[in-house]
Specification:
Chain lengths: ~1000, ~475
């Protein structure tokens, strides 16, 4: 920096006096002006440490202090001399990778713009994705760019460099090696990764006496135990819903099964078209779930009544003798279900959820076996997780070891055990006693506080690795961006205990896979490229094993289910938004309306209206739930369709140190989960409290008020109306005074079709849309005020009796009306129609009168009432889709049919000299059920054009003459005539 | 015995009450009617203080709205319009009485308008000023709305959307305001000259002299003045009908049940006159007492206004009846649901029933002369009518929006402190302007009253 002295200072020429010359002045103003622009001495360099240089140093220190967060690249980076052909600004690059959830991978394709991932999409080649993606997968992107992520490597509050960390771990490992790792313990997240399995093998060789435990707050111990009871060994069950005509789900929310929900949703939806092959779903469950909401018959039973119901069905099928008292509605249901199951031998399926005891799982295996379903609608494989399957007991075993002082070094990669462990364990205090508790996590959380070492984990999108889908298919996880913060990937972290932490994930992976495949280097390189490109390693799925019952069915049916508990029972459930709590700091998911209850930013004690009445509590009232060993204050929410005499509490809320987003959201149901991994706790006492809680629910009214909105028909009613007679009055061009514009001339006429028969309401489309279109999150308070910004909403209506209603979900986004009511009322022409029929929103022109929204009968327009992006951390700007404007305050916005995708496709098609093909909107792309179809209505061969001609097609609010471009296909239910 | 009663007693029960009590001379009228300007009421300053403080609240509300956004209001989706537009329509409605009294009654040569027209015109202008504030601040980006709503030539070739009723509003309201202001000012000129001439200080003389535009009261002046005044009256007459018709198009042109109603234009105009007269009464009854205008603003004036309110109240009631009839007869399930379920039993039902009570039942008391001439009741009733008309706009705007076609998007609306600040603020600002008007401008058209006085004398002399 040049000294201030050398910098010329512009001076008033008049002040440059000659020696001996007294400057003359002409006016008072001139004298005033001559004082100079700068104070006297301002141009002089101050001697020694002046205020100025002090401030310079201070400023520089502050600026450089920020650099500590910058991680020097561990691998060599060679800058481009010539830009690679495929990487051009504005061009999207797609990379295949995979994301693990509860140990199972879903194959993804991530779109990157200018080197940053901006959109998560499903990998069509991956068997667990089939091109779709879940809300959790979509939201992973927000986690990646979360400014609140854990940063750096810390030991006892002291930052460690990566090298220091490695050498410290090396020293630690060497110390443990002496006694074979007897005082070394690992608490790991369940993961089917072959590379991590290889690491574990080598770790076990190095530390033969070390303990390895796998733990997750939500584990399916009962299913594993059930399989062991039935088959004598642990087996994974894979439902083949595309083959099943009759499905009985016993407290099983199979449409939300981790690792398998996308495939199961696709297969289930594929059989929901009216006709002979339409499937029928029976669900017996306490709280309404996604699966229960799409059931043809839903039996509202408490968690403890599922087992007697299952026994009754088994008894009807000639397995076992116990039966519910004849004549009760449940007995009648069991009889009808059993008859339906037996009519469809080999084409039926019984599924049991993780909340049910092992005996019910075993009984289901017996039923599937007796019905000839094994190998047909259900196949069994060796457990993909193998020894890495989570066990609920792990946490208590660990606590016992720590308490006994048997652990010097504890390595934790499992998610947040302190928060999710049973309250009585007081794991936080125990971990603080472990000299070296090393916690590897994406976020600072409750466990970070208790551990002496905190190691920031790299996001899966930043690291190399491998993973297996639920069917065993291996995917290579490749990084899409250099780590944004100082962090260590899981591979490097565990490799550190093998003294190989600096080898790099890629080398580990390649070495392991070269060894596993035994290919020569050239072939391996070719294969490796293919794996990366396709996102899967072909032929790695587990092959089905013949599973014969190890014991006679009679023995399984005779297994004693736990005694019917006394008093009120509390059932725990993973949450659709935050799962077990790991997504609690993800604002997209927090603001995602629960698919069933539509609650955002909250959980509640869900119970039936009858139970609420009996307990003398009302909606929103805060009650104290007390069980042996814990109590919790939670607001009550009445859930239509909930079983009586039980309460459902979603897990994952009420975080103490879960990050800024999760603060003060919901109540921590783990405090009542007094035994590890418990799904139910009986004998709860409810004390009504004083407080009143206001839920942020974007949809407050659940009855259709007799209006033809979300239409459904029973299959037998529909069959009578062959040719779509029922819906004739709800489609076609209604008579209007206006001469309709002819849209058949342009090449493209964009339109959408939403099949309500397929839609399960899972809400993946909402998050996909939020991600694609830079939609802001507004927070609970604004949601409660009616200002949620999501462009799609999933309307959920109830019909039938309030206690036990039927449910229907209807995604509603801008309908792109050909005669749009919003357009003619805008005073400034900010919303106009394109010649291809898009209802376009010109953000720059909008002055925000909100008249368009008032006149929109579908109320799909969203207004930026406040500046919903007040302060965006620099890292959050990386998240934005560069093709979509970030809207300012005071501007209206709404679904655009992903106009940016249309324009991108148009450019590509023009360059290629073809017509646009294969264009998908973001919601369509994410939808696992293929319920949303977007495309060109002027192309008669397109899927959307076919669906617009479907017999089930109707227009929402058809009689208003808006002529929407989005068509709905009525939902068909397939009830059992015997239960009518 | 009061002078009114004495006058009534001498003339018998069928005779009309007098428009001017006694036989004042021009000099007396001048002194009495200009007294508030030269000899202000002692409490004036206190009242101005209160009104100014309330106007400060308006400033706070507007600044908060512009600085933070419409999110500071209670508006949401589905209720995109709330207090902002309710108050806009309410104030515009109030602003209808002035022009009606000035222009239409002038053209119909209704003598009783003379004593109250100035007052009503001032009220119109001040009310339109309040109303004009809302369309601007209720937009999301007022800094663009302020000029994008006007058709100005620009290089982009973008024009406003002339199909949108909001654009019609811009023209209707700005025309109305301009004409009303001119009309008021032209009417003021002779009185300003009188003020100039009777001013006791130089400042007054110069100030009023400037605004008097050199008025000398010559026959030439009077001739031009008469013609000009009549032309302006003729221009404003259609505006009385058009402004609120166009405001009603904001709703009638939309397809929302409760808005999409063809009866809206006449029913809005009637409602506007209804509320305008109510507001004149609300202000006139106390002002008349405080400023000692009983001689020129007689009970007959007030009673006539009550009659107008009775008529317009009946038109409005007919409008309500017809709306409900059409909701049933039209066969639209959505409309029927709004009228027969949402309005009557929904969360805002109390406001609907307030509207029915205030706008339908209260004016029925004006069938009775006793109640019509009971100033206390008249004053209370006029306030009730204003409450009723405000409720009507609430019912039309919020109640229609909060439960429309898809029950999934139904919502609820609750105003915030900012909404209240702006509403109370405009009431205060209106009062402030009114107080300044009473203090600095003759609030009764002195010249016209003198003229009427002569006319009445002449008639009386002729009969006698």
């Amino acid at each position: 920096m040049p000294s201030m002295k050398s910098l010329p200072v512009i001076q008033d020429p008049a002040t440059k006096a000659l020696p001996g010359h007294r400057p003359l002045w002409q006016s008072v103003e001139e004298v005033a002006r001559r004082r100079g622009e700068f104070a006297a001495g301002a141009a002089e360099a101050p001697p020694e440490l002046s205020r100025r240089s002090f401030l310079q140093i201070l400023g520089a220190s502050a600026a450089f202090a920020g650099l500590t967060a910058c991680q020097p690249p561990r691998d060599k980076i060679v800058p481009y001399v010539q830009e690679p052909k495929e990487d051009r600004p504005g061009k999207r690059l797609h990379y295949a990778t995979a994301l693990s959830f509860e140990g199972y991978a879903t194959g993804l394709v991530v779109a990157a713009a200018e080197g940053r991932p901006v959109k998560v999409e499903g990998n069509p080649a991956h068997p667990a994705s089939l091109g779709a993606s879940s809300a959790f997968d979509q939201a992973a992107l927000l986690d990646l760019y979360d400014p609140g992520r854990a940063k750096g490597l810390w030991r006892k509050g002291q930052a460690l460099g990566f090298r220091t960390f490695l050498s410290e771990v090396q020293k630690l490992s060497a110390a443990h090696e002496a006694d074979g790792g007897a005082r070394l313990s690992f608490l790991l997240a369940p993961d089917a990764s072959p590379l991590l399995a290889e690491f574990r093998r080598r770790l076990q060789l190095r530390f033969p006496r070390a303990t390895f435990r796998f733990w997750a707050p939500i584990a399916d111990d009962h299913a594993q135990e059930g399989a062991r009871l039935a088959f004598g060994r642990k087996l994974d069950l894979h439902a083949r819903l595309e083959r099943a005509r009759v499905i009985l789900a016993l407290d099983s929310d199979f449409l939300a099964t981790p690792g398998d929900s996308l495939r199961l949703t696709r297969e289930f939806a594929s059989r929901r078209q009216p006709g002979e092959e339409m499937s029928r779903l029976y669900v017996a469950e306490p709280a309404m779930t996604l699966t229960g909401a799409v059931a043809d018959h839903r039996f509202r039973v408490g968690p403890a009544e599922v087992s007697p119901f299952a026994s009754a069905v088994a008894a009807e099928l000639g397995l076992g003798k116990r039966s519910a008292p004849a004549g009760s509605p449940l007995a009648r249901a069991a009889k009808a279900v059993a008859a339906d199951l037996s009519r469809n031998r080999g084409r039926s399926l019984v599924l049991v959820g993780p909340r049910q005891p092992a005996s019910v799982h075993a009984l289901a295996h017996a039923l599937n076996s007796a019905l000839g379903n094994a190998g047909e609608t259900v196949v069994y494989t060796k457990p993909v997780l193998g020894d890495a399957a989570p066990s609920s007991a792990a946490i208590t075993d660990l606590a016992r070891d720590v308490e006994a002082g048997r652990v010097d070094t504890l390595v934790v990669t499992a998610w947040n055990p302190v928060y999710a462990a049973p309250a009585a364990t007081d794991l936080g205090a125990l971990l603080a006693r472990v000299p070296n508790a090393i916690y590897h996590s994406l976020r600072e959380d409750e466990t970070s506080k208790a551990c002496s070492w905190r190691v920031a984990a790299a996001h899966p999108f930043e690291s190399w690795g491998d993973a297996r889908g639920r069917d065993g298919t291996v995917s290579i996880v490749q990084p899409l961006i250099a780590p944004l913060y100082e962090s260590v990937s899981t591979v490097d972290f565990l490799a550190a205990f093998l003294d190989e932490g600096d080898k790099g994930g890629l080398r580990h992976l390649q070495e392991t896979w070269r060894a596993r495949t035994g290919l020569d280097p050239a072939t391996f390189d070719r294969e490796w490229q293919r794996w990366l490109r396709q996102g899967i390693v072909a032929g790695t799925a587990e092959s089905p094993v013949a599973a014969a019952l190890a014991v006679p069915p009679a023995e399984l049916t005779a297994l004693d289910p736990p005694a019917r508990p006394e008093g009120l029972e509390i059932a725990f459930a993973p949450d659709y938004s935050v799962w077990d709590g790991r997504f609690a700091n993800n604002a997209w998911l927090q603001e995602l309306p629960d698919p069933v209850t539509k609650v955002t930013w909250d959980n509640a004690a869900y119970l039936s209206a009858e139970t609420a009445r009996r307990l003398g509590v009302s909606e929103g009232q805060v009650v104290t739930l007390a069980v042996k060993g814990g109590s919790l204050s939670a607001p009550v929410k009445v859930m239509p369709g909930h079983a009586d005499d039980c309460v459902t509490l979603p897990l994952g809320y009420g975080r103490a140190d879960g990050g800024a987003v999760s603060k003060g959201v919901g109540v921590n149901a783990y405090r009542l989960r007094t035994t590890p991994g418990a799904w139910r706790v009986a004998g709860a006492a409810v004390t009504p409290g004083k407080g009143k809680h206001r839920f942020a629910v974007p949809q407050g009214h659940f009855a259709m008020e007799g209006r033809p909105l979300a239409l459904d028909f029973a299959s037998h009613e529909w069959a009578h109306g062959e040719g779509g007679g029922e819906l004739e009055h709800l489609r076609g061009t209604p008579p209007t005074a206006q001469v309709p514009v002819d849209y058949s001339k342009p090449d493209y006429k964009w339109g959408m079709a939403v099949d309500l028969s397929r839609c399960t309401g899972c809400s993946a489309c909402l998050v996909a849309c939020q991600e694609e279109n830079n939609i802001p999150v507004v927070g609970a308070e604004q949601v409660a005020k009616g200002r949620i910004m999501q462009w799609i909403r999933i309307d959920r209506y109830y019909s039938g009796p309030a206690a036990d209603p039927q449910t229907i979900s209807q995604p509603v986004m801008c309908q792109h009306c050909e005669t749009a009511p919003c357009e003619y009322v805008c005073p400034v022409n900010a919303t106009v129609h394109s010649d291809e029929g898009l209802n376009e929103m010109v953000y720059n022109r909008c002055v925000g009168t909100r008249y368009c929204s008032n006149n929109c009968p579908y109320k799909v327009r969203r207004f930026n009432f406040l500046n919903y992006r007040p302060e965006v951390a620099p890292v959050e700007t990386l998240l934005m889709n560069p093709d979509v404007t970030v809207r300012s305050r005071g501007v209206m916005e709404k679904c655009t049919y992903c106009v940016q995708r249309i324009e991108r496709a148009r450019i590509e098609a023009r360059v290629a000299g073809k017509k646009i093909e294969g264009l998908q909107s973001a919601c369509q792309q994410a939808c696992p059920a293929e319920a949303i179809v977007f495309g060109n209505l002027n192309d008669s061969g397109s899927k959307v054009a076919r669906l617009h001609d479907d017999a089930r097609r109707y227009d929402l609010l058809h009689e208003l003459g808006t002529r929407p471009r989005t068509a709905y296909l009525a939902r068909i239910r397939n009830p059992n005539p015997d239960l009518a | 015995m009061t002078p009114e009663a004495a006058a009534a007693a001498t003339k018998g029960p069928l005779a009309e009450a007098p428009l001017i009590l006694g036989h004042p001379t021009d000099r007396q009228l001048n002194d009495e009617l200009l007294a508030p300007i030269f000899d202000p009421n002692a409490n004036w300053k206190k009242a101005v203080g209160v009104a100014a403080a309330g106007t400060g609240l308006l400033a706070v509300g507007v600044v908060v709205t512009i600085a933070r956004g419409i999110g500071m209001w209670g508006n949401n989706i589905p209720v995109g319009w709330g207090y902002g537009i309710i108050n806009f329509v309410w104030w515009i409605g109030i602003g209808h009485a002035g022009t009606l009294i000035s222009a239409i009654l002038l053209l119909f040569q209704q003598k009783w308008r003379t004593s109250i027209n100035r007052f009503a015109e001032a009220m119109t202008i001040f009310a339109v000023m309040q109303a004009g504030l809302f369309p601007l601040i209720h937009t999301g980006r007022p800094w663009f709305a302020i000029y994008w709503l006007f058709p100005y030539p620009n290089t982009m070739g973008i024009w406003p959307n002339f199909k949108s009723p909001l654009i019609w509003d811009v023209f209707a309201v700005s025309t109305y305001f301009t004409i009303s202001l001119l009309f008021w000012f032209v009417g003021l000129v002779p009185d300003l000259a009188a003020l100039r001439d009777s001013a006791k200080s130089k400042v007054h003389r110069i100030a009023y002299g400037i605004f008097a535009l050199g008025w000398k009261g010559s026959s030439r002046h009077w001739q031009h003045y008469r013609i000009g005044y009549l032309i302006l009256a003729a221009l404003s007459t259609p505006l009385v009908l058009s402004v609120h018709s166009i405001v009603s198009f904001d709703f009638a042109v939309a397809q929302l049940p409760g808005w999409h109603t063809t009866i809206f234009p006449p029913y809005f105009v009637a409602g506007a006159v209804f509320s305008g007269f109510a507001m004149v009464l609300t202000l006139m009854i106390p002002a008349r007492a405080v400023l000692h205008f009983e001689k020129v603003v007689t009970v007959r004036h007030l009673e006539n206004m009550a009659k107008v309110m009775l008529v317009t109240g009946l038109i409005v009631s007919y409008g309500y009846g017809m709306e409900n009839f059409m909701a049933w007869y039209g066969g639209s399930a959505y409309e029927a649901f709004l009228f027969f379920r949402t309005r009557t039993t929904g969360p805002y039902a109390p406001i609907y029933w307030t509207l029915i009570f205030c706008n339908v039942l209260v004016p029925q008391t004006f069938w009775f002369k006793k109640l019509r001439t009971n100033l206390a009741w008249l004053w209370i009733a006029s306030i009730l009518v204003n409450v009723g008309m405000w409720s009507e706009r609430f019912v039309i705007i919020v109640v229609s929006l909060h439960r429309d076609f898809l029950p999934s998007s139904w919502g609820i609306y609750a105003p915030t402190w900012v909404d209240w600040s702006i509403y109370v603020g405009t009431l205060s600002f209106f009062s402030l302007l009114f107080l300044l008007f009473l203090r600095f401008v003759p609030s009764v058209a002195v010249a016209e009253v003198k003229e009427l006085n002569h006319e009445l004398h002449h008639q009386a002399g002729g009969h006698a």
